[in-house]
Specification:
This protein is an alpha/beta fold and about 240 residues long. Helix content is about 40%, strand content about 15%.
Length: about 240
């Protein structure tokens, strides 16, 4: 069953999304880029607030040049906060392959999730290399949050292939990128392990604004409804 990931900026927001039913709490700074990192102390506070009630993931920040040493150091430091998953954006830079090789040894210490950018011609075939290196998961997100959501950059058929490709290689899969509650009936049937949200959970769908209870419940209810549909379908098979 597809779950939902909620990006939060502090421990108070973490408690709010838990109460709304989020399956994964994601520590991220939406004011600092697509995958902006929060201070390590803030991430530790989020981990403590969640207290094992749900997995916690955290982004390491945007590294457009994919400098291997800098990315590996950021991953190691973020992993030491106690999060369950560390997310790394894979920018299409010349050093990308060297960066992945530098991250491979860390896969035995931390559960790494690679993030490809749907609006930057993502190479889905990278899933093969990620699985070989021992990454835990792969997801699609958008880099430019002002240029439309995921479905405006990738057709549903390609998203389905992305999810299937990840599953065949034993990788957790996620879909994100300015998603709204209305996208859930389209994306949930693809079978990704989770759908990621930030803007849809906030006032006026603005990712840098505070969380809105009604918006969070709209996402939660849509996920629950799709799970009900899936269960009914399975019962009829």
């Amino acid at each position: 069953m597809t779950g939902w990931l909620a990006s939060v900026t502090d421990a108070d927001e973490a408690l709010l999304v838990l109460a709304a039913g989020a399956d994964i709490v994601d520590a991220k700074n939406p004011r600092a880029g697509a995958l902006g990192a929060l201070p390590l102390d803030t991430v530790r506070a989020i981990v403590n607030a969640v207290g094992g009630q749900a997995p916690v993931s955290a982004t390491v920040g945007d590294f457009p040049n994919m400098e291997p040493h800098a990315v590996a150091r950021a991953v190691d430091m973020m992993g030491a906060t106690g999060v369950d998953f560390v997310k790394i954006g894979l920018f299409p830079a010349p050093a990308l392959q060297d960066c992945l090789a530098a991250l491979a040894p860390l896969c035995s210490q931390h559960r790494l999730v690679a993030v490809l950018f749907a609006d930057r011609n993502p190479d889905i075939g990278l899933a093969d290399r990620l699985a070989e290196y021992g990454f835990a998961g792969i997801m699609l997100d958008t880099l430019d949050k002002t240029a439309g959501g995921l479905l405006q950059h990738q057709p549903v058929a390609r998203l389905a292939r992305f999810v299937d490709h990840a599953r065949q290689r034993g990788l957790i899969s996620g879909l994100a990128g300015s998603l709204r509650a209305t996208d859930i009936p389209i994306l949930a049937p693809l079978g990704a392990d989770y759908l990621g949200f930030r803007g849809a959970l906030c006032r006026s769908h603005a990712r840098t604004q505070s969380l809105d209870t009604e918006a969070m419940l709209a996402v939660s209810d849509a996920i629950v409804n799709m799970r009900g549909v899936s269960e009914q379908t399975m019962a009829c098979v």
